[in-house]
Specification:
The chain is mostly helical and about 90 residues long. It is built from 5 helices and no strands. The longest helix is centred in the first third of the chain and has 16 residues.
């Protein structure tokens, strides 16, 4: 079994986190400061050198103003295919 950090879905997770940070107009240093973490923390998870656990993801989502449930739904969608909203 492939480790999830190397999977396509984890790659998408990382890219969505970067996209959310940029949409919030925060630099890695800004985000790290708001998380009370070093800038390298953000850099490492964005590059895939470090994994985020669920609690860390929730902290990042809160600071970015992202709804965790919506983020996960978006992650679960195939790229290029959106679920219809009812």
């Amino acid at each position: 079994m492939t480790k999830s950090i190397f999977s396509g879905k984890y790659e998408r997770f990382r890219l969505l986190l970067v996209e959310a940070r940029k949409a919030a107009t925060l630099s890695q240093a800004d985000l790290a400061s708001r998380l009370s973490r070093p800038q390298s923390f953000v850099s490492k998870y964005e590059r895939g050198e470090r994994r985020l656990d669920l609690v860390e993801f929730l902290d990042v989502a809160r600071v970015l103003g992202v709804d965790p449930g919506e983020f996960i739904k978006r992650l679960d969608e195939s790229p290029g295919r959106r679920r219809s909203r009812k």
